[in-house]
Design goal:
alpha/beta; about 30% strand; Alpha-Beta Plaits; 2 domains
């Protein structure tokens, strides 16, 4: 039986009259990388702060490793959250931050932290205010990785990082996950760049759980149909087409539904839909009827 790392039931968080999280129920198993996706203001950071015990829910239940995380040292030692906006003073030296973290997290790996400092080309004698935005992101990625906590949460961790440094982070994340002792939640807007990391995908929309599925199953929700325009039109007739793009005599349609309905039609190619395209479709509001009707 898989260990349940996180369980929420009818979780709600209200700020004044605004419901930031509404009736959110989910269970996460140990040893996986979860992608948390949502548009700006969808409630991702609020949810992550509740999971990590930084804020209390308005009502509903939340358990992390079987207990309420709020003001629970035994739980919080097992959880590290790397937020988009960190709470450290700008005058704090990186070396001191790492030292404090080594005292907070029982499984802290200083040797690994030193290795990551070299990989990210960071000088730990520098103060936070002396670092660029990308360097600050890299510094707190090091905290998240070296903490070795059973549950590690990254909230938009790659802001300001160039492509090469982001790739270094992704490789380290994969290596850590492959050891099987850690669970990661990664919240990001770089969907196409990081989707290969995800085993499970959580999509949150205006504070509500929109979907929670394994990545491959989710991508089976739709597909692309391409070929000559007339052939494509014939293949997708009667199907749920959400977008059509034309290039000369060629066309590509994005279809939501079971791809078996289009397989076998002459002159067309079928490809899996991108996670980003699915995400946009699932979180698009007040959308007018498809303007590319066939």
């Amino acid at each position: 039986m898989e260990q349940i790392v996180l369980k929420t039931k009818s979780l709600n968080k209200r700020f004044g009259k605004k419901m930031a999280i509404e009736d959110f129920t989910i269970e996460l198993e140990a040893g996986k990388i979860y992608g948390l996706l949502g548009r700006n203001g969808a409630g991702k950071t609020t949810l992550l702060k509740m999971i990590s015990g930084l804020i209390l829910p308005t009502d509903g239940d939340i358990e992390v490793f079987g207990s309420n995380p709020f003001e629970n040292t035994a739980v919080l030692e097992k959880v590290c959250i790397v937020l988009e906006t960190q709470l450290w003073e700008p005058t704090e030296k990186l070396a001191n931050i790492l030292k404090i973290c080594s005292e907070v997290y029982p499984k802290w790996d200083q040797e690994y932290a030193e290795l990551l400092l070299k990989k990210f080309n960071l000088d730990k004698s520098k103060k936070i205010k002396q670092l660029s935005r990308g360097m600050v992101s890299a510094a707190f990625i090091i905290v998240g990785l070296a903490a070795k906590t059973p549950l590690t949460i990254f909230d938009e961790p790659t802001l300001g990082l160039d492509a090469a440094v982001r790739e270094t982070f992704y490789n380290e994340l994969i290596n850590e996950a492959q050891e099987g002792e850690r669970t990661f939640i990664l919240s990001t807007h770089l969907i196409e760049e990081v989707h290969r990391l995800f085993e499970e995908v959580i999509i949150i929309d205006t504070g509500k759980l929109r979907t929670y599925q394994p990545l491959e199953k989710l991508r089976q929700s739709g597909y692309y149909v391409s070929g000559k325009e007339d052939d494509v039109k014939a293949a997708v007739e009667g199907l749920n087409v959400i977008e059509m793009q034309r290039l000369g005599s060629l066309a590509v349609c994005t279809v939501i539904g079971d791809k078996k309905d289009a397989i076998g039609k002459p002159g067309i190619e079928i490809e899996p839909i991108s996670l980003q395209k699915l995400f946009v479709h699932m979180t698009e509001h007040n959308k007018e009827e498809n303007s590319n009707e066939l």
